[in-house]
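fold-stage: in
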Amino acid sequence: MTRTPALLALALLLGCPSPEPEPEPVCLLSDGDDPDYVTEIGCADDSDVLASAPLDASIPGARSVKTVLDRLGDDAQYFQNSQRYPIHWDFATAHLSAPDHPLVPSLAQFNANEYSDPNRRFVLGALTWYAGPDVWAWELSPYDSADAELIAKGFRSVRDASFIGDRLYFHPSSSALESEAAALPDDVPVITTDELFEGIDYQPLNLARSLGQLRFTEPDAVEDAGFREIVVLQEVPNDIGIVAGIVTDSFQTPLSHINVLSQNRGTPNMALRGRGTTTASARSTAPGSSSRSARSTGPSAK
């Protein structure tokens, strides 16, 4: 509701306090700083120092900083250098393991514990700035089984340790997380993937060229895919072996595990909405699979 000049004058006469202006962000890192991690982010420049490599300037991009909340370490919040430590386990092993901390287990055990155990030690996420819609979002991996209480705890920790404050959203990156998001309290605002990428059908993630046989399959069957196949999926899988390329119907978070794998392997990775229509078309013209080149533009991230 717009206030009239008379109402404003009355408010002044009655001594009503005017709203406090939001404090200006204060950067905590200086030019040339390149830390392994920080416990607070004071401004967007601080985030840029730690963030994953930027997307190609020709497309709407996103930059992400991996976040780690250590529940066994007095709820200490860490923002890891996500170029030096592209996955959470890398950072946790280097800085949060024995002898000064509880031992961080092998990668396989770490993933089994920290993404599914309700009594997990860490809350692992990513703080992402989406350039297109100009939105700051905190995200969990699509396969994370955190409940609403754990999500709220991680979200508040990141919010309170960063300059973003009330402008931060929680972005559920899977249908399971969307269900949990419905139970989040009012101080954890939610933004959906459709809202983030409204009007966008194509999400390039890892720039590369590849030639292979298209394989339309499901996330729980990707272990059967071969290195000469370009895998086409409805949902983002938890993990994947060496393949020629990846196409998903669901949009991916910039630091998704399969995107990091694609970056390390030099293979293309992209999301393409309406991939199901492509599936039907390909199957009607060439039952089973068809050979076709796949190209994805953009950098990688998780």
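fold-stage: in (second)
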Amino acid sequence: MNAPITSESVGDPQYFLSLNALREAYAALPPAPRDVGRVHLLVARGEGGLRSTPTHVHLTPKNGIPGDAWGSKRRSSCNGQLTVIQRDVLELIANGQPLVLSGDNIVIELDLTAASLPIGTTLKAGTATLVVTPKPHNGCSKFQARFGADALKFVSRKPTRALNLRGVYMRVTRSGDVKVGDQVRVMKRPDQV
């Protein structure tokens, strides 16, 4: 893909994996870090969904990632402020296509399963504080156009839904700076007192 990637970009079917191939490759992945990980990629979706990949951002509770489409629209809820996906899962699904194609704001090396990051989990990314929101991050027709029908089934089937293969939504609760390579640390899970 040499053209700029926007919200209307689609994937190349030659890279789409079958459901069985996705399942097998996922089962072979090493466990992701559960408590401390790293920021791998930051993505802002600007005018027309044009993707930019800043190396650092200043996150705020009001706007999320600066320059991202979410912050430019009036929202009644912050539950969909940031889309976050696990790096190795995205690399598996993208299968050689650019990771920014997914449209997720933050690609991290951290276990995003519901067992590891239940709703309400607080994390520190760089100097910003984030919390996992209750909004489910589901695959959609755009996800299917980018990665194939089997990829959509892979991330959205009920038996594996708690794995959060499509990622999670987070919101910023305390402003701070985040850069690629920064540590992401779980500060508190809801079940911890």
